[in-house]
Amino acid sequence: TAYDSDGNASALSCAGVLARNFFTLRQVDPGFDAHAVFRVLLTPNAAITDRNIAIRQALETVRAIPGVAACGVVNGAPLLGPAAHPRVRPVEAAAGGTDEEVSASFVTGGFFDTFGIPLLRGRVFRELEQHAASRAIIVSESLARRLWPGQAAVGQTLAVSEAPWGSRERPAPAGAFRECEVIGVARDVMLRMGETDRRLLYLPLALEVPAPWAVGIRPRSD
User: For 97-131, how does the pLDDT look when each residue is reduced to its tens digit (9 = 90+)?
Assistant: First the structure.
């Protein structure tokens, strides 16, 4: 927000910034289609004892609404920035053993259809994999090329630092890694406006992850 000599906010300046951002987005392919996707923040009631059941029932209720084509939950949505920055390293000796930091988002299986992010290979997360102990992961195509150049990423094992699964009540052990299996490769998406790094790791939404979560709902028509 800009201010004039009298200290008044300049609405025109704000509108100009928004217009430039919108124009920039229209010129660059963000890798996903959020047109007509409704996004709602979801914060579970403190009285809920089983978040897994609660979120499953919420998604079932939304899917049953006439006209809903797809819905999914995400913590760390495209353009809003990642939810975590874990360190990763391929387990296979041929790929090397050095660590590198990547961006990560927690999602449910329906997230990809909802936001129009195609899976290039493999599959999405299954309902039984939506928990903090899950070892299934999906990688973006840029991350797949970076970690396994010239190789198929699906079926590979990736060591992921435990930090994303930690919480204030149960912090992740320092230096601990979890060996995870790559089950899919997703098309690259823009993490933030103008950002070129598209190395993204998708983790199954563990309902232990702090709320709020963003629920995306895609209707069948406008």
Answer: 678 899 998 898 899 999 899 999 999 999 888 87
User: Are the C-beta atoms of residues 104 and 200 closer than 8 Å to each other?
Assistant: yes
- pTM exceeds cut of 0.85: no
Most distant CA atoms of the chain, gap in Å: 65
Could you identify the residue written with the tokens 């930091």? Answer: 101
